[in-house]
Amino acid sequence: MYATLRKIVEKDAGQLLLGVLFIVSLGVSFPRVYATDEVQYFSWVRSLWFDHDVDFANEYRTFAILNSKSGIAESLLLPNRIRPKTQLYGNIAPVGSALLWSPWFITADVLLRGVHALGFGQQIPADGYSWPYQRAVCYASAVYAYMGLLIVRRIAARWVSSWQSTVATIAFWLATPLVFYMTVQMPFAHANAFFVSALFVRAWIWHTEHPTRWQPWVAIGASLGGLFMVREQLILMAVLPLTSVALELIQTRMSFFSNIRVHLRNYAFFVGTLALVVSPQFIAYTAINGEPKPASEVSSKLNWCSPHAIDTLIDFDPTPEPMCNVPAEPVNIPAWSRGALVWSPILVFGIMGLVFFAIDFPAYGVPMIVAFVVQIWLNGAFGTTWHLSGAFGFRRYIECTPFFIVGGAYLLSKLKRRRARLTALSLVAFFILWNMGLIVNGTIFNGLTNVRRGLQWPALWQWQFSLPQRLWELGGTFFDRCRVLKNGC
User: Fold this and answer.
1) How many angstroms separate the CA atoms of 302 and 322, rounded?
2) So what's the pLDDT on residue 5?
3) How many angstroms separate the Cα of 148 from the Cα of each of 37, 167, 392, 412, 458?
4) What integer pLDDT is reported at residue 35 of this predicted model?
């Protein structure tokens, strides 16, 4: 056994380290379905499997009873949430997460019914709501995200060493909101979306290396469709392969046009695959809204001028950009409380590395930067909810994590001196500890710090640096999961 373990370590110690960290993270995770967004994602799989319909009234009411302080009744069971054309309660969550969860959810149901048939576990109802079902979807999200980490680590290792790609993967996992949505709010879509984003980037790299083959375009269409069905805004990731096509056209114009039939064939495969994959989402729209388009709750948020593009990164002045000619929002957002780079400073180094990467490898780096900029523009266009008040971190950039990991790994590869590498590792450790402190302050001590409502300076320094003392004072009660879990205790 020791010899086998030694061979595994020698073959890929970085992957083993990621595996160990992932198992540890599962041990401290909080697998439950609690708040409004989580309930909407979960309701798709529960209602389709148990009720064979998209009438979510029973799911919303049940979770409102289970989680009486979560605001579900006040948010999801209002009369204005009923769709006029179908008389059904609305659900703004796409169906992609439910499709990814379905094998896990169904397996949990089959196993639980099998245990009941053997005369055991009768106290656990096989109703789609009990803890086996909730844990099935939560752990599914975590596993998918872990697979995404492994995929992106291998992608980064194409240009840097194994240890550099491993360090970058760990850094942009544990020092950003990604770890939070893999361990605390697990039924959100972000862990699943990160996984599909990793598949999409891998498919795009496959095309970049084999521009005339049709198979990569099928993979790109399938993964892009998956991104749309997990989080609709991610359809704009299509700019990644489109930028590659534009660069190819500029650089090899004659060669491109000489193979125009091949390219048109490939684009036809892409469009056909994309249309096929996204079709369940439009069927879902029609079934619940009475028309094949999202609900107005989603579309009404957008202001295409993107008055808060910069604020989503650094909200030094959270008022709308004057050029967009929009009135100030009613929500009072303090400066330096919500920006992604404020919450997760390590992203600065990921972006810096991505710029260096684009200079040295423009065919790969330039499309990544363009895709990231498009997401900045889109996130700033959510005029009334750009700040994500009430959320932990700026979660809408989680799907750009593959870009940050590649950029961070490439920046590490630029460090030739031992002292510089040690400094970088020290910074990574600090950013990870800082993020872990934010998570603990935002969960265990949420009543004290209210950190999820925004970073509050300078009080945040005191919250963070006094955290070890407060944890010591908690003693064994720190492990009382009912301090965080509002249901299931």
Assistant:
1) 17
2) 46
3) 22, 15, 21, 21, 36
4) 85
- Residue 375 and residue 312: Cα distance in Å, rounded? 10
3-state secondary structure of 55: coil
What per-residue confidence (pLDDT) applies to 385?
Answer: 82
Query: Which positions ≥6 away from 314 have C-beta within 8 Å?
Result: 336, 339, 341, 342
Torsion of CA 203, 207, 210, 212, to 10 degrees: 130
Q: DSSP characters for 15-34?
A: HHHHHHHHHHHHHT------
pLDDT of residue 479: 65
What is the DSSP code string of 99-140? Answer: HHHHHHHHHHHHHHHHHHHTT--TTS--SS-SHHHHHHHHHH
Mean pLDDT, 10 residues at a time, the chain of 489 residues: 52 88 94 92 97 96 88 89 93 96 98 95 94 97 98 97 96 97 95 98 95 94 98 96 91 74 91 97 95 76 85 89 77 83 96 98 97 96 82 93 98 93 95 94 70 80 89 75 60
Residue from 436, 455, 424, 443 nearest 343 by CA:
455
Distance CA 486, CA 489 (A): 7
Token pair belonging to 4: 């086998």
Angle (nearest 5°) at CA 228 between 71 and 267: 175
Which DSSP string do the residues of 232-284 spell out, in sequence order?
Answer: GGGGGGGHHHHHHHHHHHHHSHHHHHHTHHHHHHHHHHHHHHHHHHHHHHHHH
Strand partners, 89: 82
Residue 72 to residue 66: CA distance in whole angstroms: 10
Q: What is the pLDDT of residue 473?
A: 84
Among residues 318, 316, 321, the alpha carbon closest in space to that of 306 is found at 321
Cβ atoms of 339 and 394 within 8 Å: the answer is yes
Contact 30, 182 (CB under 8 A): no
Q: Is the distance from CB of 361 to CB of 156 less than 8 angstroms?
A: no
**Alpha carbon distances (Å) from 277 to 99, 201, 229, 265:** 11, 17, 9, 18
Q: What pTM, to 2 d.p., does this model score?
A: 0.94
